[in-house]
Specification:
Helix content of chain B: under 10%
Strand order of the largest sheet of chain B: 2-5-6-8-9-13-14-20-21-22-23-24-25-26
Structural class of chain A: mainly beta
Radius of gyration of chain B: 26 Å
Number of domains of chain B: 1
Strand content of chain A: over 45%
CATH class of chain B: Mainly Beta
Number of strands of chain A: 36
Oligomer: heterodimer
Radius of gyration of chain A: 45 Å
Number of domains of chain A: 3
Shape of chain B: elongated
CATH class of the largest domain in chain A: Mainly Beta
CATH superfamily of chain B: monomeric porin ompg
Distance between the termini of chain B: 46 Å
Helix content of chain A: under 10%
């Protein structure tokens, strides 16, 4: 049965082969590749939070010392712009009498205490100085005696100094230290009394040399620690200064109304006699350089009397302060500030004893001074409408610059603002190439309100946050252009709540958060 | 992770619609020498010498309706992965199963009085299970853009290992009952398993500006497979040696198979067996634990407002997400010992010989491996029109499907046994159009 044997062995093989043919496949899983398809990836780009307090600190020009911002107890903020402190120390007065020569024409001679015009000194305390005298004895006898100055004493002991003048010689005393001596005179005059005796005990007058006194007293390097006397009516220059107001020196333009600006003049006076300040010049300078005088009902004939320490009340060494505040209730400052002045210029003179009261005893110590400072106070409360600014900024897209955009189908930026400020912002960003030419803009249809004002209560205080979202789609071609930009030109304008019609308060706790994410559709 | 896995399917390719059937058909083919692999008490009657030639079985399936063609396609000489169709068919949690057995050689001897039997065999076995969420495929294919505001949990689970079995068995017939025991020395080749309680990998894209929050609490164990986890740049680079490698005695274990086959009468026989009793492997070679527990938040470039205010007149977006190394921060703990258990299978059944040509079979299989359980019940019929040809079919139901039709074809020309069988043949002849494959084929010589 060959056929059966053939059937027995080969039919199974053929049957297996036929059935196995469709399945005789080598299944190869090596190196599979992804099919072309579209994916979408979403990830964040950046976030930043701007604190209003930091912004206000920046607005104050760092080069002007004294400018500061104060956070009040209710978190409102007050900007202080301070001018230089003008000081007039008493050294101007003290330097008027540092020494001099007193030739004695007789055994009793008089010498005035020189000082400033209009000043009569009744007492002067010395903290330093020297006195000495020379004698040219033309007689044939050696003379001996003493020099006495009754108005000069120390610890109650009148100055008396002995001398011996050899005959026919020029002699003199050593330099005598006057530290601790007090000069006291009711008539601004010193008496010099010398008693010269011959060896026989006769008191004589030392003769002149052809009319030239031969007994000369010399004061040298006098420094006073205290002066007391009468200051008559005298006028002197006190200060001329300029205060820069940085907040108005930005490139922000638009309508801004500050609710209650103030200018405060503070005088610190330790001169012991009445002084009247005369406002020679007090004006703001506007945006275009125009002069805007500051007028106030506080000044009487453009003058104001300064407080001073009184001799009669034993206030020697004390400092008295005088604050003169100009605000919307007593001046035109509010109207001036709403024109956004850039600086304040002021010039003040002083008049001592303006009433020329002879009964007033005045004094000065070596540390007495009168100082004057002006300060502009701006409480950050007000309204603004279309308060605009422009700025060019550098851009660096990092790794996005090198991304292979052939695999990018489109992108969509998501710009989110979380605003706790009572200010809305309108923004447009132009992307610039290296030559500064605009190649695209962030918003295709012009500037958009990217930040909306936080809600405010009746007091103009922000009571929450307003969140805004903007979706900015871009095709791959547009994204390719934008990411090559090296700079961006930002134009923005700010408007306070309710379209700038109500004043709002800017609090130190206000902040604004800006953040952006991106969705990119990729194709493989 | 990539399976470097080439396989030549030489045999019949009856593929089923569903998942692993674990050779229920084979347990009804008691006259095949290779049926010994499911019950050590099975042996072809009236023969004394058995030489098992290479046999191959594979059970590969994916849950749901996913087919090979839904994922892979050819474009010229390129293998293309296209998930568009596949993702739509995925369930929230998806599983892939693999059981592969390559019996290289086996030898059996019976004593002249047919009371004693001795057997030796070697086989290479791979078993694997991967569970992955639909969210993982969606994230990899679609990106995170469509899922803003959602937390995608994408951590997969895996339990894959392959080993060699070196077996020696002994059987003893007592009257009509043949008892057998088989001792198996196991040498592991590769092992990869995720910790069942720590497989968290989640990604959340915040709807604010798409900030990314990545959380991990993920642990996996490896022996002889993963050398390192390098997630530099934005890609994963598992340094692996692939499965199917050389086994090592450093990874050793033992298992026992027990069974009996009782010929109750000329017509009726019953059989019960337990495979992989106490089976476990201790993995020591290159054993390591990889742990990632981290929470990473990426918010983009945070530009201090004070810098902008103070005149930093530039906007610098050059802030990139950290490398995945920095995010996942896998920590490798070397040394120690990993232990895993082999799937335990219990077979039982009965064969009823109706005539010389017809027989019926009732078969059951119970498998448990950790928390995964599969129970299958089947009814089979076999027709032997010729002495050297047998055809059979089976209807079975299991934990995942109630409609499985199996087929067997056996050729026994002379001393040769050739066979092919499948527990599920409904989907035709190509694996590419079905989510599962179940196939066994082999040959042996009987003397």
């Amino acid at each position: 049965m060959p056929f059966k044997q053939l059937l027995r062995y080969f039919v199974p093989a053929v049957f297996v082969a036929v059935l196995a043919w469709p399945a005789c496949t080598k299944v190869d899983f090596e190196d599979p590749q992804l099919d072309d398809h579209t994916s979408e990836f979403a990830f964040p780009l950046f976030s930043t939070t701007l604190n209003l307090k930091d912004l206000m600190l920046k607005v104050l020009n760092d080069t002007l010392s004294g400018d500061t911002i104060l956070v009040n107890a209710d978190n409102t903020m007050t900007l202080f712009y301070t001018g230089d402190v003008a000081e007039k120390p008493a050294s101007d007065i003290f330097s008027s009498f540092t020494g001099g020569l007193f030739p004695l024409t007789d055994t009793l001679s008089f010498g005035p205490l020189d000082s400033l015009p209009g000043v009569s000194i009744s007492r002067a305390d010395l903290k330093k100085g020297k006195i000495g005298f020379t004698i040219f004895n033309l007689t044939a006898d050696t003379l001996s005696g003493t020099l006495r100055i009754p108005q000069m004493s120390k610890d109650g002991v009148v100055f008396t100094y002995p001398f011996v003048a050899p005959a026919g010689e020029l002699s003199g005393s050593p330099q005598i230290d006057l530290t601790g001596y007090v000069l006291a005179s009711d008539d601004n005059t010193l008496e010099f009394i010398y008693a010269a005796y011959t060896p026989a005990g006769d008191r004589v007058k030392i003769p002149d040399f052809f009319g030239i006194p031969t007994f000369i007293v010399q004061f040298d390097s006098l420094e006073f620690s205290y002066l007391q006397g009468f200051w008559a009516n005298q006028r002197y220059s006190l200060i001329r200064d300029t205060i820069e107001i940085d907040i108005n020196q930005t490139n922000l333009v638009g309508d801004v109304q500050i609710v209650n600006p103030k200018v405060t003049m503070r005088i610190a006076n330790s001169w012991g006699f009445p002084t009247r300040g005369v406002i020679k010049y007090l004006s703001f300078i506007g945006q275009n350089g125009e002069e805007i005088p500051l007028e106030s009902t506080v000044f009487v004939d453009s003058a104001v009397d300064f407080n001073y320490p009184k001799y009669a009340l034993n206030e020697i060494g004390q400092t008295k302060y005088t604050d003169v505040t100009l605000d919307s209730t007593n001046s035109n400052i509010a109207e001036i500030f709403n024109s956004q002045p850039t600086r304040l210029i002021y010039e003040v003179d002083g008049i001592s004893n303006a009433e020329n009261d002879p009964t007033i005893v005045g004094f000065l110590t070596d540390s007495s001074l009168i100082s004057l400072s002006m300060r502009v106070e701006l409480l950050l409360e007000g309204s603004a409408k279309n308060f605009g600014a422009e700025q060019t900024i550098d851009l660096n897209f990092g790794n996005l610059t090198d991304l292979d955009t052939s695999q990018v189908e489109s992108v969509e930026f998501k710009l989110v603002g979380e605003n706790g400020l009572p200010v809305s912002s309108n923004l447009q960003l132009y992307f610039l190439d290296e030559a500064g030419v605009a190649i695209d803009s962030l918003f295709s249809d012009g500037a958009e309100d990217v930040i909306l004002s936080a809600p405010v209560n009746s007091e103009g205080v922000a009571t929450g946050q307003t969140r805004t979202e903007h979706f900015i789609p871009m095709s791959a071609a547009r994204f390719e252009r934008v990411r090559q930009a090296k700079k961006a030109f930002l134009t923005t304008s700010f408007t306070t709540a309710q379209n700038g019609t109500v004043p709002v308060k800017l609090l130190a706790t206000n902040n604004l958060t800006l953040k952006m994410g991106i969705k990119a559709r990729t194709k493989y | 992770m990539l399976f470097r896995y080439k396989s030549a399917l030489i045999c019949f390719f009856f593929v089923g619609r569903l998942a692993a059937q674990q050779e229920l058909m084979l347990s009804s083919m008691t006259d095949l020498w290779h049926s010994n692999s499911v019950n050590p008490a099975f042996y072809p009657k009236d023969k004394r010498i058995y030489i098992g030639l290479p046999a191959y079985s594979v059970d590969l399936a994916h849950s749901g309706d996913i087919t090979f063609q839904d994922i892979f396609r050819k474009d010229g000489d390129r293998n293309i992965i296209d998930l568009d169709n596949a993702i739509a068919k995925l369930e929230p949690e998806n599983e892939m199963f693999l059981d592969q057995r390559i019996e290289t050689v086996s030898i059996g001897l019976r004593s002249r009085n047919d009371k004693w039997g001795l057997q030796f065999s070697h086989a290479n076995v791979t078993t694997g299970w991967v569970q992955y969420p639909k969210a993982l495929a969606e994230f990899l294919w679609n990106g995170n853009g469509p899922y803003v505001g959602e937390t995608l949990e994408i951590g997969p689970k895996a339990d894959i290992f392959d080993w060699n079995e070196w077996s020696v068995g002994l059987s003893r017939r007592f009257g009509k009952v043949n008892f057998a025991a088989r001792f198996k020395y196991l040498t592991g080749a590769g092992y990869l398993r995720s910790d069942e309680n720590r497989t968290l990998v989640s990604i959340y894209t915040d709807p604010d500006i798409y900030q990314l929050t990545l959380k991990t609490d993920y642990v996996f164990y490896s022996s002889s497979i993963v050398d390192a986890v390098d997630t530099s740049a934005y890609g994963y680079d598992f340094s692996t040696r692939g499965f199917g490698g050389k086994s090592s005695t450093e990874n050793s274990g033992y298992a026992i198979d027990l069974g009996f086959d009782a010929q109750l009468s000329d017509m009726l026989s019953v059989h019960v067996s337990a495979v992989n009793l106490g089976g476990s492997i201790r993995w020591k070679k290159d054993a390591a634990t990889y742990t990632s527990k981290n929470e990473y938040l990426y918010e983009g470039a945070v530009i201090p407002g004070i810098d902008i205010i103070n005149g930093a007149d530039s906007l610098d977006f050059d802030s990139q997400i950290d490398t995945l190394n920095d995010i996942f921060k896998f920590v490798k703990t070397e040394g120690g010992e990993l232990t895993n258990e082999l799937p335990l299978r219990i077979y039982g059944g009965a064969n009823l010989k109706l005539s010389e040509k017809w027989s019926l079979g009732f078969n059951a299989m119970y498998q448990t491996h950790y928390e995964r359980v599969n129970l299958a019940l089947g009814v089979s019929a076999r027709w032997q029109p010729l002495k050297w040809l047998a055809l059979g079919g089976m209807y079975s139901a299991n934990s995942r499907s109630v409609a499985n039709i199996g087929l067997q074809v056996v050729f026994k020309p002379g001393p040769v046994q050739l066979y092919v069988a499948s527990d599920n043949v409904l989907n035709g002849f190509s694996v590419k159009s079905s989510p599962g494959v179940n196939l066994r084929a082999g040959a042996s010589l009987l003397f």
